[in-house]
From TrEMBL:
One of its GO terms (molecular function) is ATP binding. It catalyses: ATP + H2O = ADP + phosphate + H(+). CDD domains: DEXHc_DHX33, SF2_C_RHA. It comes from the Eukaryota. Its EC number is 3.6.4.13. Residues 84-252 form the Helicase ATP-binding domain. This is RNA helicase.
């Protein structure tokens, strides 16, 4: 039965899969624009073996010799002199090379040993927390020091650095926030902007900010700021023009990857992925580890559960399969699990989001299964709302995912989409700045006294989007629009929080509503995803356990009930388990709360508390007035901004027979249908009382 599925999942038509020499295609793309070329590094079978043998022990011990051997085996090692020379002659260098060639872990060490840390720190930005943390730990290990000593990291809500720290990994968001206080980035002698191809909004802003800081430091003779922009795939021409500098392309070591396409369009890619996995499991040696690309936490956890169940009952004896998951919301310890080697007779299967695309390298992967989708935030400037949805990956992403199978030997990539489908994928991923709500960005720039209209963007967001962002910030009271727009004192306070402006506003006004403690908790728990656990096996028991937290007022109060109970419990682990709640998410929320409280007390906000539910909901409305929705006769809701038709998400406590006339929501999710998540009931009178400026309320 399963072989039938196989045929639909993968393209073996014509008796042959297309064999694509991965490195050649990519090299070709890069060479077209790269002025400098490094010699190709060929690895023979013997050296591959050596590399494999060296990497694993490095993770366990930290013997100097093994580490040096490992470092020397990395492609970037041979280019060390070249990179340092380029950087000596120029302020900015672009470096492009395959994932796993040593950019992130080695270049900071090159700079350290070349003496760059004498006049300031070496900062390396990462688009993701996970990457910043794992890589910092790795480099600390290579330098034989503890984390937080010579090597440290700073991510949102966590700082592991000390006075002695010379190499500092940080998320691009953190560096951006630092630049608000220190426009010239004087703490740093060098900044490595890593994973530039990811093009997060924060990274895009940093490009402009470091460029400006370089210029200003030169002008004021404050010591140069060296900038290295690195990436696995990057439009070197575009970046080169922007930074007015040259690019280096370092040939990595990659092996051919056989590419298998689905024969026909797949209705259910999760199912295709599952079938393909078990086909691989039956037909390939156990040491061929599998990396599966999926879109997000829920999908990953559900499939992981399914695979584990199936592996248990498979009479062919498939228990020799170990499943790991990897996504941003996972705790650090869990994220690190998939890096540990498994015994040779046990196959490692990793279910990951696009985290595993470039920023993280897991050794031993021989097969990749690519579902062809990615969860992306996108924004519609007409309604001003960010929508999280699954979209097709770009062709560049598809190749990047494919490449993960050819890291330490030849491999295979199974694509759950047809060749024709792939041709219709966009060529490259659109930079985030062109597809998300620019509100937070506009405010952040205004805090730096930069008007978006004068900022040197690598790619500028649409004028329409910017206009709506200015309008929205004006409505929040964060800025004053005029011939020269400027940030208000409230706006300045808002940027102190590492949050979306709406959430910051909520916190800043909470004490005037008398419910600061409650809002601190609410914002914290909202910034952590998936508090409730439900899996198909135990759904009923989970619902029963969750019922006692339910509030008829809506999801915000329900979440608050959960979080308050969590904060009180003495045995959080057992308690979460018994109540089908996510210990990880709640612990994360508790940490966030601590940080937000610190920032709030730093601004002298009164930490008052109230059990007046109406007041609390009014306070939420005050921050989220753009997220009001009104019930229609046909049971749908229509949002105030943008007139989007949507339903209440099935996970909401307000999903069901009773439909309130007016609601406030915190998130819009779009799958096949559009849903409003985290919903609370409000009344039309409150709208008139609290946010009278909200007009165009849809009629019922
Ligand atoms: O940044 P790039 O993708 O070029 O490579 P990297 O992250 O510096 O990793 C270089 C090599 O170090 C990888 O190929 C892995 O073998 C190893 N590494 C590791 O074993 N554990 C880590 N946490 C990071 C890197
Ligand atoms: Mg890297």
């Amino acid at each position: 039965m399963e072989s039938k599925y196989m045929a639909t999942t993968r393209g073996e038509n014509g008796g042959g899969a297309t064999s694509v020499k991965f490195s050649i295609k990519r090299k070709h793309e890069a060479m077209a624009s790269s002025p400098i070329m490094e010699k190709k590094i060929h690895l023979t079978a013997a050296t591959t073996q050596q590399v494999r043998q060296t990497i694993a022990p490095v993770l366990l011990t930290s013997k100097r010799a093994t580490i040096e051997q490992h470092q020397k085996s990395l492609p970037v090692f041979n280019c060390r002199q070249r990179i340092l020379k380029e950087l000596e002659l120029n302020d900015t260098v672009l470096i492009m090379s395959e994932t796993g060639s040593g950019k992130t872990t080695q270049i900071p060490q090159f700079l350290l040993h070349a003496g760059y840390a004498k006049n300031g720190m070496i900062g390396i930005t990462q688009p993701r927390r996970v990457a910043a943390i794992t890589v910092a730990r790795r480099v600390a290990q290579e330098l034989a020091g503890g984390i937080g000593d010579t090597v440290g990291y700073t991510v949102r809500f966590e700082d592991v650095t000390s006075k002695r720290t010379k190499i500092r990994f940080l998320t691009d968001g953190v560096l951006l926030r630092e630049s608000i206080k220190d426009r010239l980035l004087l703490k740093y002698s060098a900044i490595i902007l890593d994973e530039a191809h990811e093009r997060t909004v924060n990274a895009d802003l940093l490009f402009g900010i470091v460029k400006e800081a370089q210029k200003e430091r030169r002008r004021q003779k404050l010591g140069s700021l060296k900038v290295v922009v690195t990436s696995a795939t990057m439009d070197i021409d575009h970046f080169g023009k922007y930074f007015n500098c040259r690019g280096m392309y370092l040939e990595g070591r990659t092996y051919p990857v056989r590419v298998m396409h689905a024969k026909e369009k797949q209705e259910d890619y999760v199912h295709s992925v599952l079938v393909t996995l078990f086909h691989i499991h039956r037909t390939t040696p156990r040491n061929h580890d599998v990396l599966i690309f999926l879109t997000g936490q829920e999908e990953i956890e559900a499939l992981a559960h399914q695979i584990r169940q199936l592996a248990k009952v498979d009479l062919a004896g498939s228990t020799d399969l170990r499943v790991y998951t990897l996504y941003a919301q996972l705790s650090q310890a869990k994220q690190l699990e998939c890096f540990a080697p498994t015994p040779a007779n046990i196959r490692k299967v990793i279910l990951a989001t696009n985290i595993a695309e470039t920023s993280i390298t897991i050794p031993g992967i021989r097969c990749v299964i690519d579902c062809g989708f990615v969860k992306e935030k996108s924004f519609n400037s007409a309604d001003g709302l960010d929508v999280l949805k699954s979209v097709r990956i770009s062709q560049a992403q598809a190749w990047q995912r494919t490449g993960r199978a050819g890291r330490d030997s030849a491999g295979t990539c199974y694509r759950a989409y047809t060749k024709e489908e792939m041709e219709s994928f966009p060529e490259a991923t659109q930079p985030e700045i062109l597809r998300t709500n620019p509100t937070a960005m506009v405010l952040q720039l205004l805090a730096l006294d930069i008007d978006c209209n004068n900022f040197d963007f690598l790619d500028a967001p649409s004028e329409e989007g910017l206009r709506s962002a200015y309008k929205s910030l004006d409505a929040l009271g964060a800025i004053k629009i005029g011939s020269v727009s400027h940030i208000t004192p409230l706006g300045r306070q808002m940027v102190q929080y590492p949050l979306d402006p709406k959430y910051s506003k909520l916190l800043l006004t909470a004490s005037t509503f008398g419910c600061m403690e409650e809002i601190l908790s609410l914002v914290s728990v909202l910034s952590s995803d998936h508090v409730f656990i439900s899996n198909s096996d135990k759904n009923e028991m989970a619902s029963l356990a969750h019922a006692k937290f339910q509030s008829k007022h809506g999801d915000h109060l329900t979440l608050l009930n959960v979080f308050n109970a969590f904060l009180k419990t003495e045995k959080p682990k057992v308690w979460c388990h018994d109540n089908y709640l996510n210990l990880r998410s709640l612990t994360y929320a508790r940490n966030v709360r601590r940080q937000l409280t610190e920032i709030s007390t730093g601004m002298d906000l009164a930490l008052n508390s109230s059990d007046d539910i109406e007041m609390l909901k009014k306070c939420i409305l005050n921050g989220f007035f753009e997220n009001i929705a009104v019930l229609q006769r046909d049971g749908f809701y229509v949002t105030v901004s943008g007139n989007i038709r949507a339903k209440i998400h099935p996970s909401s406590v307000l999903h069901g027979k009773y439909k309130p006339n007016y609601i406030i929501f915190t998130e819009i999710v779009q799958t096949e249908q559009t849903f409003l998540r985290q919903v609370s009931e409000i009344s039309i009178e409150w709208i008139k009382e609290i946010v009278p400026f909200v007009k165009n309320i849809p009629t019922r």
